[in-house]
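Q: Sequence in, structure out?
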Amino acid sequence: MRTRTAAAATLGTSVLLSLLVPAAAHADTAKGDTVFTSVAFNKKTFNVGVGTAQTVNVAATAKDGSGMQGILGAKLISSDDRIIHAYAADCTRPTSTTMKCVFRFTLDPDRSDYYDLKNSSAGTWRFTAEAVAKDSDFYDLETSAKIQVKRLARLATTQAGPEPVAKGAKLTVTGALTRADWNTNAYAAHAGRSVALQFKRSGTATYTTVKTVTSDAGGKLRATVTASASGTWRWKSTSTSTTSGATAYGDTVTVR
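A: Exactly. Output:
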């Protein structure tokens, strides 16, 4: 539990990202009638690539019958115990007993320094802060406010051929799956992932999975199917706890 002070939340001028010695997360703790009445994120899942930083906004409202002193120590803590402090905050007092603070954090995959995101950071992150009341009651938010921060996956444009193709002939469909490597700040092959090959018949709006293919060591995808009707082929992967899903642009093939 963090030490409580009477100071208001301190605002930094830049994102401070540091490493902690890994430790088990404590459960939320409280004293008296202080509570967080709401904690809302601008998104609950952040799919981070390698070239563009993303902003996490957290709106936290706390209440106590004696009035609120402050909301202190706002942080985002990653699955590998990295800490990001808020670079800005805007706090107001909607009523005599409540305080609302909007904290802003940056997830930056390409700072190119010691504090860059690492692949081990992907997964469940938690927002922590402490609401302190004027009568010294408190609520220490540790584990109940969570978001997902995932490595962004990308699928190359689907290629299907030959085009056009005779009905009943074999059609070869290829693609490639990559994902953000935060350790190198580049996209790298995502091997060993099951990816669905989907088909949408011309004149319809729905894709159907035809077969599932596993990406090879280079992230490459390849499947052979029988051409039965004109339509569009595409690849689609689902998300995992650490990596986003992805959908490729399709390739339309005419069957004659």
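Confidence is low (pLDDT under 50) at residues 1-25.
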